[in-house]
């Protein structure tokens, strides 16, 4: 089986050495957009935000003026592992762009069971549904590891959509991608065995967040067996048993809390 280890989505990265930013240009941009003049932002923060948005596919249709207008209203937030970023049912005020770190999106059933929907990483957006309709948050979002988020308020972003057809189409594409992913998860849950679901999940995580270690591929995200189980609709005990089977077959191994895929053809033979 040929496995494509390339990342399935483009990432936004915070630059290691920031550029010198011009707050005056940002203020002029907001004046053009009809927004209030921004408060002065440090050059480090503004440079990091600008570079991140330039690399995020959702914001590529923006002109330089529109990008600066968004940047001056954005707020940076650092998060810790295990921190709850959003709760289902909370009132929404804006959208977040993940600059660093990874987040787990989940819901809780009426019986109290947690179901993980997906894992998001750098370049992904969180809260795009509530951004459009102003409604409540539709899921919980929890940090898997340390990270940085950039929040954009709904009132600052909607004016860009009103006059930018390309931006509207790009946001629709993001929503469609999320819907396709949800449909795929439902289809796999209904038609595939536990081992097939778990194997495909690990292959997808490897494609998105994996790094090569010799001939093997190390998953760059730490997920507990309970987390893996909630992503495929299985108990932690069943996930544990399947992982042991793969370890005995030499297809999977652990390294300081990270999973390493040694034989992807065993994990997902038909993927």
Explain what the structure shows.
- The protein has 271 residues and is of the alpha+beta class.
- The protein folds into two domains: 23-187, Jelly Rolls (Sandwich), CATH 2.60.120.10; 192-267, Orthogonal Bundle (Arc Repressor Mutant, subunit A), CATH 1.10.10.
- It has ten helices and twelve strands.
- A four-stranded antiparallel sheet has the order 1-8-3-6. A four-stranded antiparallel sheet has the order 2-7-4-5. The protein has a four-stranded antiparallel sheet with strand order 9-10-12-11.
- Helix 1 (23-33) packs across helix 3, helix 7 packs across helix 8 and helix 8 (225-232) crosses helix 9 (236-248).
- Residues 1-44 have low confidence and may be disordered.
Major sheet summary line: 4 strands, antiparallel
Task: Give the count of helical stretches.
Answer: 10
Name the helicity range. 40-55%
Q: What percent of residues are in strands? A: 15-25%
Q: Could you say how many structural domains there are in total?
A: 2
What structural category arises from helix and sheet content?
Answer: alpha+beta
Determine the CATH topology of the largest domain.
Answer: Jelly Rolls
pLDDT < 50 stretches: 1-44
CATH H-level superfamily of the largest domain: Jelly Rolls
């Amino acid at each position: 089986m040929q496995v494509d280890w390339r990342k399935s989505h483009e990432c936004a990265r915070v630059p290691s050495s920031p550029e010198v930013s011009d707050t005056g240009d940002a203020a002029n941009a907001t004046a053009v957009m009809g927004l209030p003049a921004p408060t002065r932002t440090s050059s480090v923060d503004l440079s990091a935000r600008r570079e991140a948005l330039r690399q995020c596919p959702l914001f590529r249709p923006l002109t330089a003026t529109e990008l600066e207008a968004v940047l001056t209203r954005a707020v940076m937030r650092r998060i810790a592992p295990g921190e709850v970023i959003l709760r289902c049912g909370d009132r929404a005020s804006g959208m977040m762009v993940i600059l660093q770190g990874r987040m787990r999106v989940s819901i809780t059933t009426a019986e109290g069971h947690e179901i993980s929907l997906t894992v998001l990483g750098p370049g992904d957006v969180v809260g795009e549904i509530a951004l459009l309709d102003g409604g409540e948050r539709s899921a919980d979002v929890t940090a898997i590891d340390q990270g940085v988020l950039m929040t954009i308020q709904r009132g600052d972003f909607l004016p860009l959509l009103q006059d930018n057809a390309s931006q509207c189409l790009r946001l629709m594409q993001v929503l469609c991608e999320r819907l396709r992913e949800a449909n795929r998860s439902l289809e796999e849950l209904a038609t595939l065995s536990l081992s097939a679901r778990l194997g495909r999940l690990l292959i997808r995580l490897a494609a998105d967040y994996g790094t090569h270690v010799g001939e093997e591929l190390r998953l760059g995200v730490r997920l507990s067996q309970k987390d893996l189980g909630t992503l495929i609709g299985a108990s932690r005990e069943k996930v544990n048993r399947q992982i042991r089977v793969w370890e005995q077959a030499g297809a999977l191994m652990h390294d300081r809390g990270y999973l390493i895929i040694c034989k992807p053809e065993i994990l997902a033979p038909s993927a």
